[in-house]
């Protein structure tokens, strides 16, 4: 027991000297105030203030997304020369989590100078301001409510002063504060505790408090500062552990604010960084996300030029790889590649900086494809923090090799900085670190691989609206570096830190662990489903851009000039797609205005690609009467039913004169087109024949019983599948006594993070949608039969077409929902007649197997998982796949397969997913496993059906590219970013080693393999027969130099 309350006394004295750091304080008594305009990130600073009103300091102001100009002309006294001059401004509350409240930008004489917010109330000025009138103009932003129903934010202009800083008092304050925090965190038996506490007490006993603020008072404070520094320096600190600190501000592209607000947040934070760099020569700052830099370049060119100077000095670090810190569950493999391609090219072109690491501290899971993507992008290190938020299981290692599905390995490091709130939990680590004795010790205490390195990394600074690093943090680092009992606390770039870590790991004699599999985040599972429209548009645009790049490249080659391909336009469109893959936009965890903005952006991106496609088709195909070209942008030869915009009666023939099967429908005719070449097309022709008859329907429909060429189907009175019998395999598809396509609603009220989370207890309250309003036969023809059904559920309505085909085993559920529920989770359930202990899920550039049981806590944690185009449950001889055209959430437990369709939380978006949704999911029973059953092909066809384009080309049947193996899938055919070559990228998706023969349908001079960044990996070859060895899940990229 401390009978003399020494620590309590010292804490009180330290806080008392805090305000005495500021001397000769002079108030700015009033401001000229005017309403501001909010749609322009950097509006012109008012030059005339005649229409401003006068307001005294102490005024209250409020608003929701409101902007306010404050202006004052100030003269800094000439007698302050030789002092450190500053302003002190307190205009509002930045808000909990620094993510939703007040922020402002200070303009000095019309130029952006520094951000001012709750964490940055000091603004330092150079001596050039002395003796002359200075124009101080603040652009204040009220902030927003931080999610939920919009609500005005209340603020007060509490303080506006100018002063000069007493540097020794300031030094004493920060040193004493850090020593006291260190002492309080030490056990009584630790040797430095008594010495530090005595030194601190001895120093403060020298302060004369009889007349605070007097010259005598400051003399005593300066003496105390000298005394304390001398005592600490004499303690001869020797520590083996070093904490490397890099300044950072984690700015979400959009979350509880819109994209336009991010542009402003970045300008404020970056200007503050630049001011602090003028004061602290050791300050190093890292900022990722090239998208933010592109915004700054456009909006704030003055700030951008200053940043470029600091980058050249090596003090401002540009790295992190991706265009934005993207979600890694939902974007396709090609999207993740483009994130890095576009991002790294920007850093190189704008700053002449290479990229060495992927920085994703805050994303909600990490695809098993990432290690290979990184290695083939020239990146060897991956860093994250969010994995520490796992609900059930702590990752066993913090520094290890992560092995991807193809066997690629990248060094992976988890930053273990504890949150400043010590009560938040032992696993919760942060990327918005505070520099305090608790955190610099905690980063070491929590680290699991102490045998590998004694040097750890902290990224520190307030994120989002918090403005980044402040002067307090920089002073804390300086002070802690000299205090015994704490690690050495140094500054270092993240790049240099990772280089050192990589060297240590490569040279250690200790065992370095490996994690072979995905890094599944046991949290935020609802982000696979929330805000369905964004997920749908992302999927559609990924496929649209794949097709547009192929068509424009093909058109350019047809004109003899690859440079004519519209890749620049498409790359600008890609930036829109990539931007909206940010880890709080596409996951569905942002406020309503963000999704209003993204809807506009998606339309813009679609317009760009559609225009490029129209231009390309105008080159490739010429009008030819009643003729169409059926385009196949898939990797395989395909036979499918294609809707053609023709309603007259007649016959369709292929280019060989064969009459094709057809079925007339409302507004079109369905045509079965056989053997459409891969990455190519085939012409079909229509002949009007009033007496032509369609072939007899192979479907027999008697009440709720349906016979198709593949199945016997029975529906029950609720519209559910009561029986599904596979005629070819002579077996029941559904488990005995079970029903398929059961639409279900679950109460979805997670304990926290409404839009983000699905909690494991959601299954305790479930209802089936059974109120079938109508069921009718909508189509029954030669090619397909459609059963149309309608259900109601509370305030919602569901319409669904059950589509069965004569030439395809796939069963489609074409669905439209008017969704008016809240806190409800909608799923479709299929209990199937399969015995297996793992399921296969489609992911980027391949697939992953996950257990469908809860044997361990690791298995149980995956009660909701992500898949892209399909999820499959197979035993050796038979399997069932669920396909989809825009859904991602799935849960497969034992033999019950469910796909998650809609989730309707109310925070941050209080209207989340209310309204109309249209989507398709499919059931696909098949022989063998998903490879033998060709599930991937069916899933591709669902997402990218054959397309009819008016006109025909120079050849009525053509293949631009063909492979001799079905085990590879083509990902991209595009003009290279530098315009010199044609890029062809494909991957192996079955997990097999094979030889692949590639046959180009175009003329080329030579080709070479390249990495994902389109950099050649060898000398060009002029071989005309291209045969390549491909290993399981390997991504291959080739450059073709065409004539």
Automatic annotation (TrEMBL):
<dbReference type="GO" id="GO:0046872">
    <property type="term" value="F:metal ion binding"/>
</dbReference>
<keyword id="KW-0479">Metal-binding</keyword>
<dbReference type="InterPro" id="IPR028995">
    <property type="entry name" value="Glyco_hydro_57/38_cen_sf"/>
</dbReference>
<comment type="similarity">
    <text>Belongs to the glycosyl hydrolase 38 family.</text>
</comment>
<dbReference type="GO" id="GO:0030246">
    <property type="term" value="F:carbohydrate binding"/>
</dbReference>
<dbReference type="InterPro" id="IPR000602">
    <property type="entry name" value="Glyco_hydro_38_N"/>
</dbReference>
<dbReference type="InterPro" id="IPR041147">
    <property type="entry name" value="GH38_C"/>
</dbReference>
<dbReference type="GO" id="GO:0006013">
    <property type="term" value="P:mannose metabolic process"/>
</dbReference>
<dbReference type="Pfam" id="PF09261">
    <property type="entry name" value="Alpha-mann_mid"/>
</dbReference>
<feature type="domain" description="Glycoside hydrolase family 38 central">
    <location>
        <begin position="522"/>
        <end position="602"/>
    </location>
</feature>
<dbReference type="InterPro" id="IPR027291">
    <property type="entry name" value="Glyco_hydro_38_N_sf"/>
</dbReference>
<dbReference type="InterPro" id="IPR011682">
    <property type="entry name" value="Glyco_hydro_38_C"/>
</dbReference>
<keyword id="KW-0378">Hydrolase</keyword>
<dbReference type="InterPro" id="IPR015341">
    <property type="entry name" value="Glyco_hydro_38_cen"/>
</dbReference>
<dbReference type="InterPro" id="IPR011013">
    <property type="entry name" value="Gal_mutarotase_sf_dom"/>
</dbReference>
<dbReference type="Pfam" id="PF01074">
    <property type="entry name" value="Glyco_hydro_38N"/>
</dbReference>
<dbReference type="Pfam" id="PF07748">
    <property type="entry name" value="Glyco_hydro_38C"/>
</dbReference>
<protein>
    <submittedName>
        <fullName>Alpha-mannosidase</fullName>
    </submittedName>
</protein>
<dbReference type="Pfam" id="PF17677">
    <property type="entry name" value="Glyco_hydro38C2"/>
</dbReference>
<dbReference type="InterPro" id="IPR037094">
    <property type="entry name" value="Glyco_hydro_38_cen_sf"/>
</dbReference>
<keyword id="KW-0326">Glycosidase</keyword>
<dbReference type="GO" id="GO:0009313">
    <property type="term" value="P:oligosaccharide catabolic process"/>
</dbReference>
<dbReference type="InterPro" id="IPR011330">
    <property type="entry name" value="Glyco_hydro/deAcase_b/a-brl"/>
</dbReference>
<dbReference type="GO" id="GO:0004559">
    <property type="term" value="F:alpha-mannosidase activity"/>
</dbReference>
């Amino acid at each position: 027991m401390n009978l003399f309350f020494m620590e309590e006394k010292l804490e009180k004295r330290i806080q008392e000297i805090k305000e005495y750091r500021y001397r000769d304080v002079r108030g700015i008594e009033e401001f000229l105030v005017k309403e501001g305009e909010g749609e322009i990130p950097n509006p012109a600073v008012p030059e005339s203030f005649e229409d401003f009103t006068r307001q005294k300091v102490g005024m209250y102001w409020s608003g929701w997304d409101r902007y306010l100009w404050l202006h004052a002309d100030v003269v800094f006294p000439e007698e302050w020369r030789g002092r450190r001059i500053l302003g002190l401004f307190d205009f509002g509350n930045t808000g909990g989590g620094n993510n939703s409240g007040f922020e402002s930008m200070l303009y000095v004489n019309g130029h952006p100078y520094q951000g001012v917010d709750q964490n940055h109330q000091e603004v330092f000025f150079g001596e050039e301001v002395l003796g002359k009138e200075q124009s101080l103009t603040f652009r204040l932003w009220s902030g927003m409510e931080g999610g939920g129903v919009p609500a005005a934010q209340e603020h007060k202009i509490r303080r506006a002063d100018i002063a000069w800083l007493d540097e020794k008092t300031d030094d004493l304050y920060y040193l004493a504060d850090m020593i006291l925090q260190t002492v309080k965190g030490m056990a009584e038996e630790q040797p430095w505790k008594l010495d530090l506490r005595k030194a601190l007490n001895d120093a403060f006993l020298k302060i004369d408090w009889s007349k605070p603020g007097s010259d005598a008072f400051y003399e005593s404070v300066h003496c105390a500062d000298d005394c304390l520094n001398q005592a600490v320096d004499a303690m001869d600190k020797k520590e083996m552990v070093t904490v490397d600190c890099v300044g950072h501000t984690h700015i979400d592209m959009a979350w509880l604010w819109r994209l336009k607000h991010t542009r402003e947040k970045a300008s404020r934070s970056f200007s503050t960084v630049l001011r602090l760099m003028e004061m602290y020569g050791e300050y190093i700052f890292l900022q990722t996300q090239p998208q933010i830099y592109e915004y700054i370049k456009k909006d704030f060119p003055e700030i951008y030029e200053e940043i470029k100077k600091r980058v050249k000095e090596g003090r401002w670090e540009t790295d992190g790889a991706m265009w934005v810190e993207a979600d890694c569950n939902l974007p396709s493999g090609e999207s993740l590649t483009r994130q890095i391609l576009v991002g790294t090219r920007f850093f190189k072109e704008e700053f002449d900086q290479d990229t060495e690491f992927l920085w994703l501290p805050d994303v909600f899971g990490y695809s098993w494809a990432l290690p290979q993507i990184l290695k083939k992008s020239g990146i060897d290190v991956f860093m994250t923090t969010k994995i520490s938020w796992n609900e059930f299981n702590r990752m066993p290692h913090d520094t290890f090799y992560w092995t991807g599905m193809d066997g690629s390995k990248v060094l992976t490091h988890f930053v273990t900085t504890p949150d400043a709130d010590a009560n938040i939990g032992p696993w919760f680590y942060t990327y918005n670190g505070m520099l305090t004795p608790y955190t610099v010790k905690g980063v070491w205490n929590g680290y699991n691989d102490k045998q590998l390195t004694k040097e750890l990394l902290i990224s520190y600074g307030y994120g989002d609206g918090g403005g980044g690093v402040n002067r307090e943090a920089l002073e804390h680092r300086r002070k802690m570096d000299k205090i015994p009992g704490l690690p050495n606390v140094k500054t270092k770039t993240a790049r240099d830190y990772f280089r050192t870590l990589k060297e240590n790991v490569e040279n250690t004699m200790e065992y370095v662990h490996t994690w072979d599999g995905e890094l599944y985040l046991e949290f935020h599972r609802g982000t696979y489903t929330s805000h369905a429209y964004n997920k749908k548009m992302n999927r559609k645009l990924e496929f649209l851009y794949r097709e547009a790049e192929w068509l424009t490249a093909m058109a350019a080659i047809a004109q003899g000039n690859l440079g004519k391909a519209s890749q620049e336009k498409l790359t600008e469109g890609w930036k829109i797609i990539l931007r909206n893959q940010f880890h709080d936009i596409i996951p569905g965890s942002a406020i309503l205005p963000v999704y209003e903005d993204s809807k506009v952006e998606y339309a813009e991106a679609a317009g760009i690609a559609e225009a490029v496609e129209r231009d390309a088709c105008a080159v490739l195909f010429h009008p030819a009467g009643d003729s169409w070209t059926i385009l196949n942008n898939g990797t395989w030869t395909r036979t499918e039913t294609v809707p053609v915009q023709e309603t007259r009666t007649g016959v369709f023939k292929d280019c060989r004169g064969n009459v094709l099967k057809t079925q007339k429908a409302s507004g079109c005719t369905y045509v079965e087109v056989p053997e459409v070449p891969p990455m190519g097309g085939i012409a079909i022709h229509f002949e009007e024949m009033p007496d032509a008859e369609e072939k007899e329907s192979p479907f027999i429909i008697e009440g709720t019983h349906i016979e198709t060429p593949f199945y016997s189907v029975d529906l029950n009175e609720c519209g559910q599948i009561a029986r599904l019998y596979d005629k070819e395999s002579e077996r029941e598809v559904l488990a005995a006594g079970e029903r398929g396509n059961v639409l279900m609603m679950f109460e979805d009220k997670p304990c926290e993070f409404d839009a983000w989370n699905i909690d494991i207890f959601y299954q305790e309250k479930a209802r089936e949608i059974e109120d079938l309003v109508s069921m009718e036969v909508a189509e029954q023809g030669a090619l397909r039969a459609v059963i149309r059904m309608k259900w109601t559920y509370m305030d919602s309505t569901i319409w669904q077409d059950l589509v069965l085909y004569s030439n395809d085993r796939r069963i489609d559920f074409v669905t439209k929902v008017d969704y008016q529920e809240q806190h409800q989770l909608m799923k479709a359930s299929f209990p199937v007649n399969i015995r297996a202990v793992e399921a296969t899920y489609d992911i980027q550039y391949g697939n992953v197997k996950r257990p469908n049981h809860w044997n361990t806590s690791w298995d149980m944690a995956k009660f909701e998982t992500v898949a892209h185009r399909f999820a499959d449950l197979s035993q050796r001889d038979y399997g069932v796949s669920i396909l989809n055209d825009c859904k991602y959430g799935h849960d497969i437990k034992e033999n019950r397969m469910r796909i998650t369709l809609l989730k309707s939380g109310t925070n941050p978006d209080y209207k989340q997913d209310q309204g109309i949704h249209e989507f398709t999911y499919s059931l696909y029973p098949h022989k063998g496993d998903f490879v033998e059953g060709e599930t991937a092909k069916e899933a591709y066809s669902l997402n990218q059906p054959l397309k009819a384009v008016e006109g025909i080309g120079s050849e009525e049947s053509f293949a631009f590219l063909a492979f001799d193996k079905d085990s590879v899938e083509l990902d991209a055919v595009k003009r290279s970013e530098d315009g010199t070559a044609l890029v062809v990228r494909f991957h192996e998706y079955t997990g097999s080693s094979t030889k692949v023969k590639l046959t180009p349908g175009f003329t080329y001079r030579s080709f070479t393999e390249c990495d994902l960044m389109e950099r050649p990996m060898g000398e060009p070859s002029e071989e005309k027969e291209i045969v390549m060895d491909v290993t399981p899940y390997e991504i291959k990229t080739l450059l073709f130099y065409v004539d």
